[in-house]
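Lab notebook, page 48
Experiment: co-folding of the full assembly
Goal: obtain a model of how the components sit together before planning crosslinking
Operator: M.T.
Materials (sequences as entered):
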Amino acid sequence: MAKNIKTRAEDYAQWYLDVIKAAQLADYSPVRGCMVIRPEGFAVWEAIQRDLDRRFKETGHVNAYFPLLIPQSFLTKEAQHVEGFAMECAVVTHSKLEHGAHGLKPGGELEEPLIVRPTSETVIGHMYAQWVQSYRDLPVLINQWCNVMRWELRTRLFLRTAEFLWQEGHTAHETEQEAEAETLRMLEVYRAFAEDVLAIPVIKGRKTEAEKFPGAVKTYAIEGLMQDGKALQCGTSHNLGQNFAKAFDIKFLGRDNKIVHAWTTSWGVSTRLIGAMIMAHSDDDGLVLPPRVAQNVVAIVPIFKTDEERAKVAAFVEKVVRSLVGDEEFEAARTRQQGEVASYFFDKITHQRVIVDWRDARPGDKQFHWEQRGIPFRFEIGPKDVEGGSIMVKRRLDRAKEVVKLEKMTAQHLRTELAGVHQLMFEKAKKFRDENIRDAGSYEELKTILAGKGGFVRCFFKQDKSVEARIKEETKATVRCIPSDTAEKRGKCIISGEEGQQVLFAVAY
Amino acid sequence: MAKNIKTRAEDYAQWYLDVIKAAQLADYSPVRGCMVIRPEGFAVWEAIQRDLDRRFKETGHVNAYFPLLIPQSFLTKEAQHVEGFAMECAVVTHSKLEHGAHGLKPGGELEEPLIVRPTSETVIGHMYAQWVQSYRDLPVLINQWCNVMRWELRTRLFLRTAEFLWQEGHTAHETEQEAEAETLRMLEVYRAFAEDVLAIPVIKGRKTEAEKFPGAVKTYAIEGLMQDGKALQCGTSHNLGQNFAKAFDIKFLGRDNKIVHAWTTSWGVSTRLIGAMIMAHSDDDGLVLPPRVAQNVVAIVPIFKTDEERAKVAAFVEKVVRSLVGDEEFEAARTRQQGEVASYFFDKITHQRVIVDWRDARPGDKQFHWEQRGIPFRFEIGPKDVEGGSIMVKRRLDRAKEVVKLEKMTAQHLRTELAGVHQLMFEKAKKFRDENIRDAGSYEELKTILAGKGGFVRCFFKQDKSVEARIKEETKATVRCIPSDTAEKRGKCIISGEEGQQVLFAVAY
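Observation: model returned without errors.
Model output:
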């Protein structure tokens, strides 16, 4: 088998790209910095969307859709916001292509340039100003799933691309307290999702003034740790105070008959989570999918040499599949359009499937194929297994093998096994994360740890934008967050010696 | 109650806009021709997506995501395609905003302008060329849910806007026959969806050469009839032959060891379907939602004067809600963030809900409020109903009222009632449609019918682009399709007298 994936030790950055390529998750597109999310990668995004969307709805939110293009003038209404987003954006200046002397050229110049949304606080603020008149119209609890663009110079698939997919929640409230409660509620939704679905342990915390969202009063985030010791921000939740309400005139008649500005929040996660998932769990053999986002939960590889063996194996495979997906689904799948890889819905709601690889290829090649795609379980079924009435079950996570009797292989058994894999993945990642949080009592110690093993460095720090800029310059590290768990802790700042908060530094993606 | 909706007879176009406004389905945005799809409208799109996505997956398709921006040069590779789409598109020419003398101005001019996708055949063709090498890589069966832009001059909410949401399926096949089978398969998926979910009867058929998609060999469509007698194209499916495969070099090594071009298809439906749904079913009192896309299937309006009455009514409402959604969901809903309108999931998969309107408003105002939003059933529950142990059930479709005993109001009963409403809506729309198909034996007859009652005019016609252009000029009508059911029929063309096919003419949206 040709080695098509560099090891993490050899070249971590190349390993990451090789894993993506081998699993066919994404490709670069012909437009600089934009990616194509291939079906295997998009299935992960769909699983993320399905689960998060349910969590949003269960906390009272509804979805809507706001326009892709934002008038240039909107961006300038919130002073910090424009500085954060104007410098790298796609600008639409014309409304058609015309025939010119040298082929087509832009025509129909617009009076005002339009920006492809880098985020939608501005245009959504403009609409909320029209929808909100009275305290009775509050809270407004809206989420949007969409594409956004930021013209990044250095791109990396999923982690940083010019265009990416995300969700952005935008809410408006009657009081400051309600807005803060919403900000924290969604932060907790993100934490629970990252841990319970992607099996990525994350630390909840608040961003420093230097690192907060342009236009926010407070920014909170969940931070994960990747296998190379770098941190990755997995989601953010912003308390925007009245900044955007004032910029866009979101006002309402309060219970006391006075007209006041609303309090707003915004919060988001993006396709970056797929990058986090890859970096947190995959190994030198390729992708390892957390079971709850795996489109295919089992790949069955039949093994046979003669037609007679094939018939025997096929009959046994049918029993296994029927046991897992039920007779109704097995029959329904017959009538569907299928290639040489047959697929059966294991779960009709999540669209998770069991597949059987009947392609004309060597069993070893098929094993390799599905291993690199990170499918939680592979079943090998050959003539000897049929005789023994059992299945050779291979677990992707740790290559554990187990012989399981056909009678035992029910849908319930598989569900339990999948839940077990999730738990193992979470614990493994948590152990790694916890082992890579180190304390520093001085700036020297901070630098030594960062230059060595990396990971999170815990220390006391007094916020100061210029100091943070210098530390970033010298170590590439930033304050990832002031962890919520220890938000009240105070100690001697490793730089100034004055009273500081407990923070986590790390080099981040 | 102030009359906020014009009647259809008074002003059909204004009625349409009034229905959308009263039901809060959509608003115009600050960017010309772009709309904001509000939560009530977006819920319909989500229901459409959920159902169609399942149908796509059950026919073997997977989802992926391709970039928003397309290099200008791509558009010119297929000769007909560029003429169809270059003339009204959003052109990105710059990659940032810079501070200039008069505020911000576009900076970082791009070497090649980029087009916001009007449709994605070109960029997807470019990617397929890289993915497809052998017949073993075929078929490729990919769908994309996304936003697209066409710089339309005259816009109308949902029906024609500069930006809209859609899905575009793009498939590549080994043979011409397979591509044609796929084109027809997806046309049938659209027909079944339109009729079984939106309750809109549609006619399947093929487009004339004059009306086909720019770059297609054959275009098929489903056509619906709106209440004003105009036709509306509800979905299209294109057999692209080898046109795009040749333009983008999608080639593969066939079973006979020869390298040949693939055969491709594309097919799509858009947020236009929401416009079709509104125009097909709504009445002078506002929106009428087909039950399968209604986010809220029941709105309960409690009626009480005193606190004592309120308590009694509340206890009874609780029994009704528990009976419909189950005790588990009733309890879970208590812990969720809620406004004065309590909501309970009736169906966890579709997110359809039962709501109870506890707002401090008059019962009549509440009835009016939910009626205009098209909710299939409203339950009125006052002290007398509590005493009788029954519910006053009002059906939105036809204002039918029925007193139903609490014991009878189970989830199963409601499901049956909702299915009944769907059936009634479909039959009503089908009766209207069938009554509005009229035969014409001559061009004079065609004109007379179109100038009178409108609807579909059935006649024999020999295809001729210039004749079709003239008829459109003179009558505003176009050939909507050559119906699939009667594709073999031949008769005397109403214009030329030569042999023609049976077609349907209509004025269309």
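Interpretation: Chain B has three domains: 12-281, 294-419, 438-507.
Next step: discuss with group before ordering constructs.
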